[in-house]
Amino acid sequence: MREEDLERAILERNPSLDKSALDKMVDEKLRSSPFLTRRGALLIILEEMRIAQELISEKDFGEYLQLKNITPGLQNINIVGRVVGKRTGVSQDGRAYIVLKLSDGTGSVEVLGDVADVLREIRVGDVLAAHGCTVVRKNNRITIRMSPTTVIKKDAVDIPPLENLVKPLNEAAEDESSDTWGVVVYDTGPRESGDGIILNDVIVTDGERIYLLHAYREHASFFIGARGKKFVAANLQRRGKEFFTSYDTCIEYVGEDNSLVERVLEKAGNARARPVARCFDGVTVLWDGKKLYRAPQLENVSHDVFCRNVFVLDLSSVPHIYCENYEHVDESSEFGELPLFGGELESFDGRLVDVCLQAELLRKTQLSMVETRFGARQLIRFWLKVRDKIYSGAAWGPISEKVNELKEGEPLTLVFPLIKKNQFGESEVHFDRFTAILWREKTS
Question: Half-sphere exposure of 14 toward its Cβ, with a 13 Å CA cutoff?
Fold first, then answer.
């Protein structure tokens, strides 16, 4: 056969293999022997593929390696597991790929392969077996890499069911990526976050507790109108009562549980509230006559609102309010005066959340760049007068520019300021993205 005929036979046998990848395989064969011709290399590759795809695929795979025993450097191994996540991507050289997250009950691992028909058909919950894989370390993570000669099939091996391989939200590890499941209660709708990335805050539950799932980028649209849907998420990161998607998060719906949602909503209530301030990161502050809340989904609200199916979550020690929907209502006098801090700042350490702090901005420094362990950061320092005492404070990064716009001698009513001790044990008042300044027109 001519070289052209051999190339055509190899490429027809492997639809996921293109000409450039085949040329790389030929080059590797040529480097292995100085006496090998290109035609000889093509014959070897064709024979290897014939053996791999026609002979091995007709026989048992042999012994599978448990995923807990996967280590970088292993070659030509057999693996099997149930798919708990799937995502696609495009490499820097323009080649499409698929990543599957597999679990066999002993451990879990990501499997990387070219976009082939058999991989396109794989769904979360399927059992996948692969013969002839290599284990590598990619992005500081152990990954199984498939080659064009890897034989892939859906196997009937006794792998634990999907529900035994993923954890409910409340069992997900703190500050780690977990494979977990939950049910969507409602989403608050996609919006642009401060860094220009699309974000959808989603209220989710596992039947035990309520959590907030921050769905970024393509995951933001995934959750639109998904109330009641049960999802499985691989590589979902947790921090306290919050979950975060990332570039390698895989999410897929596996059913519905509307009864669970209804049970959860029975604990939710309605609330009437008034916007009284805007935090330095642009988030609205609501006052319901009893407490102050950050309300991320109520952007640019300036009138009293009536919120339905309300959940309150303490995030970073600050109460956040979320609702399924809201409407503007006529202003009312029912809310009363906002509570003011009346104690001594020296006796307080942390964030003021239930009361406001009245102060006067005495002086501020010019904006400056300061080297920190996080790199160069912009800083502004200031001094506040609280009753008859003077306290120093600081604001960093983008917040410092907004503080710089404040006028010296201006009276301020602060919402969610951070009170902490400096190295000398003195109390300071710091501003960050959670901090807000009360609107004057709302205090009358």
Answer: 25
Cβ neighbours of residue 418 closer than 8 Å, sequence gap 6 or more: 350, 351, 429, 430, 431, 432, 434, 435
Q: Are 78 and 117 in contact (CB under 8 A)?
A: no
Q: Which residue has the tokens 């693996």?
A: 79
Q: What angle do CA 427, 433, 437 make, to 5 degrees?
A: 75
**pLDDT tens digit sequence for 393-436:** 999 999 999 999 999 999 999 999 999 999 889 999 999 999 99
**What are the start-end ranges of the E strands in 341-388?**
350-351, 357-364, 368-372, 375-386
Q: How confident is residue 60, by pLDDT bands cut at 50, 70 and 90? A: very low
Q: How far is CA 214 from CA 203, 247, 356, in A?
A: 9, 13, 28
Q: Which one, of 400, 429, 418, 412, lies nearest residue 277 by Cα?
A: 412
Q: What distance in Å separates the CA atoms of residue 358 and residue 385, rounded to the nearest whole number?
A: 9
Give the Å distances, CA to CA, from 366 to 233, 371, 405, 433, 435. 47, 16, 11, 20, 20
CA atoms lying within 13 Å on the CB side of residue 50: 8
